[in-house]
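2024-03-11 09:14:02 DEBUG pipeline.ingest accepted 1 chain
2024-03-11 09:14:02 DEBUG pipeline.ingest length=264
2024-03-11 09:14:03 DEBUG pipeline.predict start
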Amino acid sequence: MRTTLAIAIALFAASEAFAGTLAINVTHRAELTGGELRATVTLSNEGDETARAVTPVLRFRGVETRGATQADLPPKQPVEASLAVPAGTLADGRWSYEIVVEYADANLYPFQAISLGTLAVGSPPLPKVAVPALPSPVLADHAEFPVHVKNLSETERRLIVKVLAPEAIEAKYTSEEALLGPWAELELPVELTNRAALPGSRYPLFVTVEYEDGPVHQTLVAQTSVEIGAAEAKLGREGRYLWIAAGIFGALVAGVVAFRLSRS
């Protein structure tokens, strides 16, 4: 008999592109029932603007199902949705599922937020692979997002590493597959590209690491967030200080040149 573990993850995605603020919060739990993965999703709007066309989506092992669209989600009025997808035959271990929330603001500008949960089948041991603390990048057009993975055992691991972001943000990396030697550590260089995210927004980013531990399937989920900055913030949080320093340096050079000209 399979046993399952329910997981709840909070998701915060905000936008201040217009007069109001949208802040969609998601909690969810899932279980295996009758060959299906069933998820109960609670959506709430913690902002001060009504969200439009709010639709939850459940994704699991390449299959997805869409829930009913909530035409309006006013602030502080949570709604609940039940979603289910075929689970197939699952080996003992930990498996990840994805909750996607599509919504729009008053001008029908589309947003998307994601959240991940894990489902335990049987009584799997703790994972022997870790993801140290992830950075929280500031993204204007492009940003580097290095992902570090460490092997906590003397057994070589063949990993599948994925970076999951809302569709407004593209994550590029060379390969999802990696071979991690005993006690080894590797870095996966990832480049984030802003395709449609508006300045002032903040979205969660997720990293999943999957591998087979004998007959057990292991999935590790790590989370951070990305802040969408203005175009002049391409250099990150310190960008404005670099521009200020460049301006001061330019003024000093101009002053030296003027002084020399006045003495000549």
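2024-03-11 09:14:41 DEBUG pipeline.report The CA atoms of residues 55 and 69 lie 5 Å apart.
2024-03-11 09:14:41 DEBUG pipeline.predict end
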